[in-house]
Each structure stands twice: as structure tokens, then as C-alpha cells.
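Reminder: ligand-aware prediction takes two inputs, not one.
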Amino acid sequence: MGFPEDFIWGVASSSYQIEGAWNSDGKGLSVWDMMCRKQGAVWNGHTGNIACDHYHKYKEDIALMKKIGVKAYRLSLSWPRIIPDGIGTVNDKGLDFYNKLIDELLNAGIEPFITLFHWDYPFELYCLGGWLNNDSPDWFAEYTKVVVDKLSDRVKNWITINEPQSFIIEGHINGTHAPGVKLPFNQITHISHNVLLSHGKAVKIIRENSKQKAKIGFAPTGEVAIPATNKKSDIDACKKFMFEINDKSIKQNSWWLDPIYLGKYPESGLKTFEYEKPRIKDGDFDIISQPIDYCAINYYFAPVIKADNNGEPVIVPFEIGHTKTTFGWYITPEMAYWGSKLLYERYKSPILITENGMANIDMISLDGKVHDPQRIDFTHRYLKEVKKAIEDKIKIAGYFHWSIMDNFEWAQGFKQRFGLIYVDFNTQQRTLKDSAYWYKKVIEKNGENI
Ligand code: GCO
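Here is what comes back for the chain with D-gluconic acid:
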């Protein structure tokens, strides 16, 4: 067996991380534009003002994607580029940028997968309370409608929201990501509920307004785990770890995916958040739980779990010297098998791996090339686990490598390089890394060499 014929081989990026042009052609400010102005917020004072200058170089970048042979490209849209104040007047020039980008992709034979929200929230809406405001789901729906009206004649694949756990925990609890605030937990659960309602309203808008049959997903972080052994007790402990909520955190995917797929919050979460649970209005779960097509998920690293004598999950520490990326993240390929398997068993929805990749020390060598064997090995290992899952009858629709090119890695600035394409941020010159040529072969052979 192996990868199905129609497996989606893709690459991914997000608007703030690559576009630059932070104030061009009528774009409004996002919370990330503001975060980058806060002293000490981003490594070495870097900003996304220019980033990869993709706004001006998108044709060149799409030509490179074509050269790699990718079948799909997951991009996100900058909401304040399209609607500068977040609601109200549309900035035609901003919308037109995406219009041209989509045409360019389709001309290159690359299928666009649009993420509606990948963290660059309109600053004007943040000033109105942002996700805490109970109108925020309607704001998101309004923005979605503008985009769907314009692009859905050519775009059929949509991801509503990327990694709510990251922008809520980093942005609203730790204050290390935009908007950089530290809110109490009852406000955090309130935000999470509004984000879920925003997702649901966007799904409804897409279904009602798309000019073709749409496919939709929601992309939380890969909060999955790996059982220490194949024993039932360890697997059960691993499931408990993934789906039971026993501390005050909105990290676990059951907090997000149970409402979407099962139409309710997990009991354990409601119990643990006893005095801090969100206010749930009649009909909220009807909005949130409309059918979607992909259980999208981003895989980077995961803990290993075993059962203690009572069957409770305990984290098994990694052995000394377990390999890490330059970000300090452990390399844990088995998550791609176990995460997919356990999510698929619980939610019964095809998995779409919307991100996977690693930060590495990449440099242009004397021969003018970028040799990144670690990234090739990393990707090979994770893809082997994807293949194993597929052979175990777990439906996995596709894989998007993070990222097409080196880019602005949030609070880490340009410190971390995640790309298949090396970017010289001084000259904006692009160089395909060895991993890009390797991925090209994988795609050509539909993963037969995995
Ligand atoms: C994410 C982020 C990406 C990051 C990547 C590496 O979804 O976490 O979506 O923007 O760049 O994950 O940290």
C-alpha cells in the first residue's frame, strides 16, 4: 500500500510570517504589528515589517513552489490587510493581492488551502476587546463572508483558525505573543468559547456562500502523545492524557475538538474549570458543531506516556541526549502515527497534517548550496509514521511541510529557520535547500521512497 493516489503533498506559511508590506496599500495594523514595537518582545528587535517580502515577491515564490512540485499550498490571509479596521470598509487593494496570488497558484497547478486566521488579528478589534468581545464571532463571520464572496469561485479548501491554543496561551496568558497580555483564567475560557463560535459561524458562512463545494478544517496544535509501549494500559493512559482535562488549561484538543465533533465540552474540563467555565448559550453547540471535512493538526513534538499502577498517565522523561531541533524541541516522529490514530478513533474525521517541520542550523555553503540533512532525516522519519498510519487504515488526506521558506518565527524573530527554501533576509535572495530537492522526489514518487 502506501500513500493514496490523491494524497495532498503541500507546503505551508502564514501571512504575517512572510508577507511584509506591513503598511502598504491601505493595510490596517494587526496585533503583531504592535507586538513587534514592544521593546524586548521579539528576539533582537526583529519585526515582520518586511519579513520575506512575499507581498512583492509572490510570483517568484510560487515559481519556486512549482519547481519543488508541490500539489498544494496552505497560506493564511491577513484580516487587517483585507478589512483594515477588522469590520466595515473593505480594502480592495488588499483583497486584490490575494486574488492575484490565487490566480498565480492555480496557473502553476497548485491547489490553495486558505487559513482564515493565523494570528494577525486586527488591532482595531483588539481595542474593542478582541476575542473577549461577544461580538467577535460575528466580526469573524463578516470577514469570512468578504473573503468567500471574492475567492470561493477558485478556492475550495479552507482552514478556519490556526492553533487557538498558541495564540491564546502565548498571547493572552504568558504575554509572549501578540497581543501580549496576561488574563485570568475565566477570561481565557470565555475567549476559547468565542473562538469556537467564530469557527462555527465561519463554517456556516463558507457552506452558505461558497461558489463550489467547500472542504473545511480547524487546525489546533498537535497536543498528542505517544504511548511508551503497545500495551493496552499505556495506550489507555495516553488517551487519558490527550483527552481528559485535569488542570486549568485550554491546551488539550478535547477542549476544542469535542465541541466541534461531539457537540459538547468534555465533562472533565467542565468539572476542572468549575467556577471558570464559559457561559454557554442555547444553540451555541449547534453553531460550533457543524460538520467539517478535515481534522487538521500541526505536528512538532509530543511527550511519551506510560500508565502508573493505577492506570494514570505519567510522562516518561526523554533519555539524555535525545535529539532536539535548534528550537530545543524534541524530535518525536511517532506522534504522527499515534496522534493521527487516536484522533481518528475519537473523531472519525480524516486527518490533514497542516504543519510539520523543524528549525535547523542552515547556511549557504562554499558550494553555494544549503545542505540540511537533518531536515531531510526529520521529515523522512515523520512521513514514515504517516505512512504506517495510512497502512493501518487511518485516513490521512495530506501533509503540509512547515514551511515553504524561512520566515519570521514570532517571538523568536528570524532566529529559527524552518524553510525548505533558504531566505537571505538582507538581500531577499532565495536558495532551495537540499530538503526541497528531496521533497520534490518524494512528491514525484508519491511517497514510494518513504
Ligand atoms: C504554528 C505556527 C507557525 C510556526 C510553526 C513553528 O502554527 O505553530 O502556526 O506559525 O511558525 O509552528 O513554530
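The chain has a mean pLDDT of 98. The CA atoms of residues 28 and 84 lie 4 Å apart. We will return to this case in the review session.
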